[in-house]
Amino acid sequence: MVEHTGIRVVHRGGSKINFREPVITSDSRFLLCGSGESVKVYSTSTEECVHDLQGHTDLVTGVVLNPSNHLQAYSCSADGTVRLWDFTDGILIKTFIIRYHIFSIHVSEKHVGVLFVVVPMANEKGSELFQLVAVHLPRSGDPEVEVGELSAVLCDVSPNPGAVSFGTGGEYIAAAKGLQLEVFFFKKQKSYRFSLKSGMNKGINNSFTCISCHPKEDCIATGHADGKIRLWRNFNQKKEYTYSTLHWHHNAVNTLRFTPEGTNLLSGGIESVLVQWRYTQENQKDFLPRLGAAITHIAVSPDGSLFCTSHADNKITIILSSVKVSAIIQGLVKDDCVRTDLMIDPRSKALVLNGKPGHLQFYSLHRDKQLYNLDIVQQEYIHEQGVDQFQVVKAAFDTHGDWLATVEERRQKSSELEINLKLWSYDEQTQSFVLNTTVTAPHEDQITAMCFSPSPETTLLVTTSLDGHFKAWLLADHSDTEESASWSCDFVGGYHLLKPGCCCFSADGSLLAFGFQEVVTVWSPTSWELLTTLSQPPGAVRDLCFGRLSCSKYLLGTSTKNQLCCWNLLTCSLEWNTPMDVSLLQADPFSENMAAFCSQSGSTDLFVFKPSEPRPLFSKKALCTGKVERAIFAPRDQMLESSEEYSQWLNRSQLYFLTQHMDLMTFSTKTEEDRLLASSKQLMVDDSVAITPFYLLLGRHKQQQQEKQELLTNPLAERTPLPQGSIAIKELLDTPAHVLPSASFLCSMFVRSLLVSSSSARVEKEPAEEEMKSESEEVDSDGEADLFQPKQELWGSAAQDPVEESGAPVLTKAQERELRRVKKLDLSWLSSLLDC
Amino acid sequence: MASFKPTKIQIYPQLGAKVTQDTLYWKNYKAPVQVKEFGAITNIDFSPLAPHNYAVTASTRIHIYGPFSQEPVKTFTRFKDTAYSGRFRSDGQLLVAGCEDSVVRLFDVSGKVALRMFKGHTKAVHVADFTSDCYHILTCSDDYTCCLWDIPNSTELTKYKEHSDYIRCGATSKLNKDLFVTGSYDHTLKMFDARVQKSVMTMDHNHPVESVLFYPSEGLLVSAGGRYVKVWDLLKRGQPLVSLKNHHKTVTCLCLSGNGQRLLSASLDRHVKVYNTTNYKVVHSFDYTASILSLALAPEDESVVVGMTNGILSIKHRKTSEEKQGPTGQPRRQPVFRVFVKGRNCVPKQDDFLVSKSAKSHLAKYDKQLKRFNVSKALDTALENRKPEITVAVIKELDRRGTLKNALAGRDEQNLSQLVNFLIGNVVDPRFAPVLVTATEMILDIYKAVVGQSSVVDRQLVRLQELVEREIDYQQDLLEVLGMLDTLFASTLPRKEVPCPVLHCSVLVHELVPFII
């Protein structure tokens, strides 16, 4: 079998942004965080990703600002390198090769040219012991430098970066592990160890979890697994150290941080409450409750104006120093398992899976951004260990995205299972799903599968359950009553008391297949008649899938005993079968293709085939380690024109799958990569402003105007388009008020300067007149003049006389092309953005 | 930062019929006025003229009632035997009635003595009606014949002898003076045309026909007989359109609502059913105390008049718009609109400094306590609430948080008795039982050590025990009944074979060689 090299398996978004502590830059404009194999730079004001710093070849394990240059940052990675970046321009400056698996990185202002990294004692990945080593960076002009000089500072430290902290201007470094706190003084080259008595016999776990040193005074705050915070003082001697204890958290303190001035101490834990303690007045506390999920890291900007907390649900919250949330950067929420399948919302084309506890998340694959969360359970989440919570276990969309069905369940230790089936209708006005019907206890046992009928005439939902029944739910219309339409049970069926495991509708909705253990039953959903039964023992049916388009006469099924069967529905006989351990069978909704993921000796192989053809279209051995349980074909917004046989199956849709380690992967072809590269070059705009179609439309235009305007000698100084940061504005504000003209006079002028008005174009008219005339002629001859004309009117609407109408800013050819491209862009994300 | 999500109060489905536009319309009648007549009331007919008096035929009299009086405004008593079918002419001036003594009498509404007597039938005449030209009378008799009479010279025009049993109902067309329909105990409906002097259409109802009715358009005909109401399409040669079986005794009377959108049927089973004439679904039903023989609606459905076998005439008048508002004389003063919009539509002026304040969310008392994790207080405030749904929802929420035990424990006698009181009231309610049974078990576990210290609580616990035991017995009985019903159903259902084609013999295994590698 030939392995096709043109198709690569790539990570596509959704990597963890909460793995390590984020860093806020010294001007508080950007936030840096490690995200998988890259470092992402977010704007703190717009929440948009400004740069994606790529270069590492393994997980990024730490990001710190360069203490000697506040526009640079170091990042360390498990690939054994430390890289220095210019994050404002997104450029890699230097690479330091250390050749150790680096777990975390620390810097101090006092130690210029020295990095402190945590590496394993023996240079093995599996090593349990770690040491803190100082790395003296060699001064060299080469972009890649090998670092030879490593000197151990502390032995046996915790790999957790929160357990190491520099104190008062880098005089000492404190590290905690287990029940021991170790402080190393650089001047004396001496370390002191303090240990706590184990409280295990009393049922208390008082081991250290995190540490933070006061920036001004000699004080170390440590967090403990029992929820206590201890403040250590007088620790520069072995005997007479003291500590005081603060206690508010009822579970482990995950992270601690002093503000840069040392006036406040921030702490967070599983309660998802940010606690702000006043230093020296510890009984005064401020709380910021209900942050959504357990706090894993807290970072503070160097000027103390912003805090940010990263959370267990792959989220970074940016908080103002007045303890108010200002922005939220949300990544793809990945639990340890995806209980609901991967789904595609037919409206927004977003990937849908369960996210935060009790929520469904809508994740845009194209923009690698979470669009919104839909609260399914609608209950206050109690952040406490050992509480049984409702979980969203199943969800399904109908073909048009008008209806969403969700199943939530909660299993208590002693009592019975609680199941709710909820049906949500799409509300055009609010652009989101609204709860229509709640069915409590729709089945007596767990629901195993759920699907909507694809036929356009009826709105029908089918659920199967371990209680041996399947139920059909129908939208009942109560046009004669006051109430709106709601769902009710239409039919309850079963087959010889066997437990149904899966269900599938045929593409036109005229047939419905259920897998009742070893038997496949085919029903007619209109009359609820059992049409036929198919079976191919041994092994229970695991997955069922109808063929599409030209292959719609085939029904495919996989069984637990390594069988992939294909039945012909016209003859009701087995067409072919093959021994394969298929863990997942997925049909492409836009073609006849089927994807089968087979697990074989610890790794997964993929076969893409048509049910009617004996040869697979595409196969890939050893795709990834472990079983693939979830995959989905997502439609492309633009079709690819690949003509090669092996990549044709990727033309209309793209296959995404989740590996065992919850990495979202996809297949990419060469043509697609070329296209991506081209578009990324096009979008190189270095600003903190997000690149949106609006930006491309307005921002470029404005920039050009700005450039042209700078050339002209403008008599009015305050008429610069950008008000913030302009020297003229500053001057205006600094000038005493009594020497300025009246405010109303200035105001109208000021406001006019902010508008994209024709008056500014009027100024630039004279130099560019020649060029424009010729251009407008060109445009008239152009076939696309009708598209262009209304835009021109839009810009020129403020102009009074018709002579100046032509002087409105005529777009250049390139801009026009841009406009056309923007017009073609998929703006469906806008709708989802609006209801966030 | 997300705001606190309030406790979800579960909405339980309301039992009983759904409230529809029809139920609202047909319930909008005052309490019935009842008048005792001398015998079974066989016919009620409204006058087409303005005050809409109605003629009630019972025993040997015909009473004419005014729209609001409970005393008859006029009485016709000149019958030798039981009178039948007192009907008004379309101008409201004349009234015709059949009689057990086979004589048909024609009255002037203002007079007393019969103007004409039509003699020719040999047996009781149960139906008498005017034709649409007002000059003829149709009569149907128990001697299996029906006749057309000329009013001016009181002669018999035609006699039709086509039925083979008693003719107990008939209706004349309002659009054509020559057409009429009769229904007989020989199970047939016949449509006659006076121009050809014979029946032009025969329909088989399969039951003795008790009542017939034309639709206003006269394209459809409704007949009632036995338990069935059937609708026939006259334009398709009497093809049956619908057969309705919604009564469990003989249907005796049919009637259309004022706008012709609803069909009413009255039956011996004491019910009046209202059908929608587009889909023939029952949209409403009335209950009466005795078997109903006759039913009539005033024009515009202003009143519903029903006559029963025990001689009671029940009259229901429609509520007027003032009465609809209910007995509260002085309506409560609502705050004026200005109060609600105060300050909302204020536009900030030029120099105003805007302070944005987030809208304060209002939480219920128990939610405020839950937000602060005060579990016992949350339960206390929930118990003060009147609605058991809310209390149960809070108990469920506490159970979900795993703190129900803490909330239930540590109560004094008064608090505990309040709690047990609530349980006694609601624990057997099937909507709340799953939640409250766990709570009850927890209470018994917590307080079993102190049983016997308080007489109040002990008495309540004994009551609770009795209640639960009674409920268990009841459930057991219900299960037994269910078992019996299951066997009954299983034996009545026909056995259906599941089609299972021969599959496994001709399995065509098409090995995919390149697949396996």
Written description of the protein model:
The complex is a heterodimer of chains A (836) and B (517). Chain A is built from 9 helices and 57 strands. By secondary structure, chain A is mainly β. Among the domains of chain A are: 18-159, YVTN repeat-like/Quinoprotein amine dehydrogenase (Methylamine Dehydrogenase, Chain H), CATH 2.130.10; 160-330, Methylamine Dehydrogenase, Chain H, CATH 2.130.10. A 5-stranded mixed β-sheet of chain A has the order 6-7-8-9-13, with no helix packed on it. In chain A, strands 1-57-56-55 form a 4-stranded antiparallel β-sheet. Chain A has a 4-stranded antiparallel β-sheet with strand order 2-3-4-5, with no helix packed on it. In chain A, strand 47 and strand 48 form a beta hairpin. Chain B has helices spanning 21-27, 321-324, 337-341, 365-371, 375-384, 388-401, 404-408, 413-426, 433-447, 455-492, 513-516; strands spanning 33-36, 41-46, 54-58, 61-65, 72-76, 83-88, 94-99, 104-108, 114-118, 125-130, 136-141, 146-150, 155-160, 167-172, 179-184, 188-193, 198-204, 209-214, 220-225, 228-233, 239-244, 251-256, 262-267, 271-276, 282-287, 292-297, 303-308, 312-317. Chain B has a 4-stranded antiparallel β-sheet with strand order 1-28-27-26, with no helix packed on it. In chain B, strand 2 (41-46) and strand 3 form a beta hairpin. In chain B, helix 4 runs antiparallel to helix 5 (375-384), helix 5 runs antiparallel to helix 6 and helix 8 (413-426) runs parallel beside helix 10 (455-492). Chain B is elongated, with a radius of gyration of 35 Å. Classes of the chains: A mainly beta (836), B alpha+beta (517). The interface between A and B is large, with 47 and 39 residues.
